[in-house]
Write a structure and sequence with these properties.
The structure holds two protein chains of two kinds. By secondary structure, chain A is mainly alpha-helical. Chain A is built from seven helices and no strands. The chains are: A mainly alpha, B mainly alpha.
């Protein structure tokens, strides 16, 4: 990697990039809190689950604030005109990850109706692996954005890792869906719908991470000519 | 007659600023790098520097070059035809080559007045016009190939900074070379002993000022985009390479006192950049229209110059 920072006239752009990493850090903590809250629900630890859910909501709000500030700075004239819209799109996709974590957490926030079968599913090994894939997709995205400081080859080498974790998450989601409907006989129908929707929305975490990775590919294509 | 020539030259300079706004500020504006006001200021600085430092090299680009001498009437016909054609083409939002129009009109009017035309020199100028886009394409190809290989090692943020800096630098270079070549040529059309007692520098500065007014007042749209994004889509490095190469070729023309069209060079440059990336999507209709104008317009200006002088 060749660092020609002395040639850079991009103080604004560097500040936005650092802000983007901070944004990702908050989003990542939000997703971690969400995953932890699901595990606590699975164990029946209601108090801890509620506290973690509150962390998810607070994290999402903090992410929103940073997203708004960064978007404003970009709109005011940072970056080359041809990639400005893509930078805004990238910020939007990163924020969508936190939004998905919050929306998914909402499904479990009023957990008094969840029966034993539902909790068993939430605490199952498959669910744990699913949540790990969601965390990993966000971590891979963070590594990808950090690679902006490297060259083109470095960025492109890391794009696929986000896609891989998204595919794993998809696969685990399908397994959990099958598990859910296989055990649905003993569950309240509303709970079945609640868990189904929970899985769909939680999977959006990885989907949004992958979408962000796609935007980065566009940035590379446009920026490196 | 002196005032009339100067007035027409100033009108032509105004049209130059208007018609060339896409080359002078279009790149900066399109990239969103700088505000409109700052883009205009940078272009005006480039125009002034070009005219002051090298504009005088074009003083003999018409009379003293294409013909050993000339008369006020020939210059009057040249300027009238040039104003008429450039105004018409500018209103149609077509890029017009000032050099081609003026040379065509001057040759037509000179021939009509029975003044000896320097045939060898005319051939040299026309040959340069054909070679210019080819040379620009070759230079662009070489530069763009090297640039894209080099930037892959840079961070995305550094590349972004380079793209924005390159946009400003290319605008400055284009303004400089256009100022020297085209405004210098317009200045040459007011000279040749007809305006004795007039300070050459004052005339040059006046023409630059008028061009700047044309650019500032009317240079917002219309012609902008015809050469660039409507022809084919290039990356920032591709556009910068094409502009850099075009400026280099126009500069070479200035050293030889040859009026050169930046639009012709740019077309060659953009094709050179396109072939670097094996881009095959090209607005062929627009390319054909543009190239046709290079042939049709000088013939029309030649004919009008010839006929106008007959009418005088």
């Amino acid at each position: 990697m060749v660092d020609l920072g002395f040639l850079s006239v991009g103080k604004k752009e560097r500040a936005i990039f650092d802000g983007m990493l901070e944004h990702l850090a908050i989003v990542s903590r939000t997703v971690d809190a969400f995953a932890a809250s699901v595990e606590k629900v699975g164990k029946g630890d209601t108090a801890s689950a509620e506290e973690l859910t509150r962390s998810v909501f607070e994290g999402e709000t903090a992410a929103d604030t940073i997203h708004r500030d960064l978007s404003l700075k970009v709109a005011q004239g940072a970056f080359f005109g041809g990639v400005r819209e893509d930078i805004l799109n990238l910020l939007e996709k990163i924020d969508d990850i936190a939004d998905s974590a919050k929306d998914a957490a909402r499904f479990l926030s009023s957990d008094s109706r969840l029966g034993t079968d539902a909790r068993a599913m939430l605490g199952s090994e498959n669910m744990k692996l699913f949540l790990d894939d969601l965390r990993s997709s966000v971590a891979a995205l963070t590594n990808l954005v950090r690679a902006f400081d490297g060259g083109k080859a470095e960025v492109l080498s890391k794009v696929h890792s986000v896609e891989e974790f998204e595919e794993w998450a998809d696969s685990r989601k399908d397994t959990l869906m099958k598990q859910l409907f296989a055990n649905s006989q003993g569950m309240d129908p509303v709970t079945v719908i609640q868990l189904r929707d929970f899985l769909f929305v939680a999977d959006d975490i990885a989907d949004n991470a992958e979408d962000a990775g796609d935007v980065i590919i566009v940035l590379v294509a446009k920026g490196y000519g | 007659m002196d005032s009339l020539l100067l007035g027409l030259a100033a009108t032509l300079a105004f049209l130059f600023g208007w018609n060339n706004s896409s080359f002078l500020i279009g790149n900066i504006r399109g990239s969103g790098t700088l505000s409109y006001r700052v883009a205009v200021i940078i272009s005006i600085i480039g125009l002034f520097l070009g005219v002051l430092l090298e504009g005088s090299k074009m003083a003999t680009s018409l009379s003293g070059s294409l013909a050993p001498s000339t008369t006020g009437t020939v210059l009057l016909a040249t300027l009238l035809v040039s104003v008429f054609l450039t105004l018409g083409l500018t209103l149609l939002s077509l890029p017009v080559s000032f050099s081609v129009v003026m040379v065509g009109a001057f040759l037509g009017a000179t021939l009509s007045s029975y003044i000896q035309v320097n045939v060898l020199r005319s051939e040299e100028v026309i040959a340069f016009w054909f070679l210019a886009p080819v040379a620009t394409a070759a230079i662009t190809f070489a530069f763009y190939s090297s640039a894209t290989r080099l930037v892959t090692r840079f961070s995305l943020l550094t590349v972004d900074s380079l793209n924005r800096t390159g946009t400003v630098v290319s605008a400055l270079l284009v303004s400089y070379t256009l100022g020297a070549n085209n405004i210098g040529m317009i200045f040459g059309s007011t000279q040749s002993g007809v305006l004795e007692g007039t300070s050459g520098l004052e005339t040059l500065l006046l023409l630059v000022l008028v061009a700047a007014v044309g650019l500032a007042i009317l240079g917002r749209g219309g012609v902008s985009g015809t050469i660039g994004d409507k022809l084919l889509v290039l990356s920032p490095q591709g556009v910068f390479s094409a502009f850099l190469a075009s400026s280099a070729v126009v500069w070479i023309g200035t050293q030889r006192a040859i009026p050169v069209s930046i639009s012709q060079c740019l077309l060659g440059g953009m094709l050179g950049a396109a072939y670097t990336k094996s881009i095959t999507v090209l607005n062929r209709r627009l390319a054909l229209e543009t190239v046709s104008l290079w042939v049709v317009v000088p013939m029309i200006s030649f004919g009008l110059g010839y006929l106008l002088l007959r009418a005088f």
